[in-house]
Design brief:
The chain is α+β, with helices and mostly antiparallel strands and about 140 residues long. The chain has three helices and four strands. The two termini are about 30 Å apart. The model is unreliable at about 35-45 (pLDDT under 50).
């Protein structure tokens, strides 16, 4: 197994796996906080066709097969974060016990705090030269 990269110098002392996790949390917290909630693309711009399962099934003449439900959000109502920004763990304001999604690729590591993913749900990013989608 390859040796993990050294933690950033801004991290507090502790076991390496905890330092890396803390750095990832901090970086993601700032990135998502600074990313904003706007998206300049129009809703439904993802492509043509029915927006819901109900519309697809109704178009096939099988609407009676679906249970009744109330759709709270429309397609693309929660825009993803496209250009996240990151900060050192020491400036993130995250607690040591906060939940994050950590990603490490090619010696580069990032932390995506769940507290922000609850509102935006998806982050398009690139880690270690590899495009990724972080989803909650």
């Amino acid at each position: 197994m390859p040796k993990p990269p050294p933690p950033p110098p801004a991290l507090t002392p502790g076991p390496p796996h905890l330092r890396t996790a803390a750095a990832l949390w901090a970086a993601l917290a700032l990135a998502l906080a600074l990313a904003g909630c706007g998206d300049d693309r129009a809703p439904g711009a993802g492509g043509a066709g029915p927006d819901t399962l109900m519309e697809r099934v109704a178009g096939e003449g099988r609407a009676s097969e679906l249970p009744s439900f109330r759709q709270l959000l429309g397609r693309d109502d929660i825009p993803p974060v496209y250009e996240p920004s990151f900060v050192p763990a020491s400036r993130s304001g995250l607690g040591r016990d906060e939940l994050v999604i950590g990603v490490a690729v090619g010696g580069e590591a990032r932390a995506y705090p769940v507290r922000y993913l609850r509102w935006r749900e998806m982050v398009n990013d690139e880690v270690g030269g590899v495009p990724i989608l972080v989803s909650w």
